[in-house]
Design a protein that fits this description.
Structural class: alpha/beta
Largest sheet: 10 strands, mixed
Mean pLDDT: 92
Order of helices and strands: EHHHEEEEEEEHEHEHEHHHEHEHEH
Strand order of the largest sheet: 3-4-5-6-9-10-11-12-13-14
Oligomer: single chain
Bound molecules: iron/sulfur cluster
Distance between the termini: 37 Å
Length: 345
């Protein structure tokens, strides 16, 4: 049975039209789901009984279960069980400007980035748009407040699950859905060039981030296997096209790995690569894990790297660190429940 949270507003209108009902019922139903947050179709009071019965035959209300939460001062890490007993994690971060949730888009990930704990397990399947939407709904229920920002940067490569991820954006952005402003939604990709081009015509003003992490092909091939399929030139051309079509500034994420990609030459090369690009560069101190050998760059070396970029008149920030105490930081999410429990102990 289909999950009602998979339905975009427009597809729900079509559904009601197919039942010879008025399409404004989509409006009513969205309001019950996302405003009143019903748990059963029987709670609906302004839709006729036979239609409620039909909804019960056609849809479930929700497919995921919250099974654990770990809380730090500014970060909560959530473990969800899916209805095929798979597990995914999401992270809530509290910023001065609001609450942001990092959602997972797949169970496992096929991209194989060498520094990433989340991608150690191969992709098992894509998450549905409903399973992604529910991560936010369940977190809002837990914290009893509205989530204001969403980053699609958890487990999985969003462009490897393009249709469900774009439907998810439509649902959470809809005024009658979770009403999260499109400029408050960020999708992060490791660089699937054809999808970057396709995303240029996606008519929502969401932010795009590229996980760059290396300024040349030789190094990027070593740490991000996707670079062999889509080398830097192809990715940069796709991003230029994206910028030309959307006029939206792109963020480049750069994880600082000790003695791998953090030399002064690497910083200069990075400036050369991004020169003339309207972009932000986000330097991310690496979060070490027990299973991966990479180490984090020392603070003074990160600052030196930062200074070189700054002197080249480029927009650069060093990411504030969140959640490393509970392994909720970037690249530390797990996709297997057993891994997670080991982590809690
Ligand atoms: S960094 Fe993202 S794309 Fe790369 S392996 Fe990890 S989850 Fe997958």
């Amino acid at each position: 049975m289909e999950n009602i949270y998979d339905k975009t507003f427009e597809s729900l209108e079509e559904y009601f039209l197919s039942l010879n009902e008025k399409k404004f019922k989509a409006n009513q139903l969205y309001s019950w789901l996302y405003d009143k947050k019903i748990k059963s179709f029987d709670e609906i009071t302004d839709i006729k009984k036979p239609i409620i019965e039909r909804l019960k035959e056609d849809f479930t209300i929700g497919d995921i279960k919250l099974v654990n939460v770990e809380k730090d001062e500014l970060v909560n890490k959530y473990l969800f069980e899916l209805n095929d007993n798979e597990h995914v994690e999401s992270v809530l971060m509290r910023h001065d400007y609001g609450t942001s949730v990092c959602v997972s888009s797949q169970v496992g990930c096929n991209m194989g980035c060498k520094f990433c704990e989340s991608g150690r397990r191969k992709k098992v399947r894509n998450l549905t748009s409903g399973e992604m939407t529910e991560q936010i709904l369940k977190i809002e229920e837990d914290i009893k407040e509205k989530v204001t920002h969403v980053v699609i940067m958890g487990i999985g490569e969003p462009f490897d699950n393009y249709e469900n991820v774009t439907n998810f954006i439509k649902i959470i952005n809809h005024a009658k859905g979770l009403a999260i402003g499109s400029r408050h939604i960020t999708l992060s990709t490791c660089g699937i060039a054809p999808k970057i081009r396709e995303f240029a015509s996606f008519p929502y003003q969401v932010n795009l981030a590229l996980s760059l992490h290396a300024p040349n092909d030789e190094l990027r091939n070593k740490i991000m296997p996707i670079n062999k399929a889509y080398p830097l030139k192809e990715v940069m051309n796709a991003l230029k096209y994206y910028y030309k079509e959307t006029n939206r500034r792109i963020t480049f994420e750069y994880i600082m790995l000790d003695n791998i990609n953090d030399s002064e030459d690497n910083a200069k090369e990075l400036c050369k690569l991004l020169k003339g690009f309207n972009c932000y560069i986000n330097l991310i101190p690496y979060n070490e894990t027990n299973n991966i050998d990479f180490k984090r760059t020392k603070k003074d070396k990160i600052l030196k790297f930062y200074d070189i970029i700054k002197k080249n008149d480029m927009n650069v920030t060093i990411r504030k660190e969140f959640g490393s105490n509970i392994s909720a930081a970037c690249g530390q999410l797990r996709s297997k429940k057993e891994d997670l429990w080991n982590h809690f102990i």
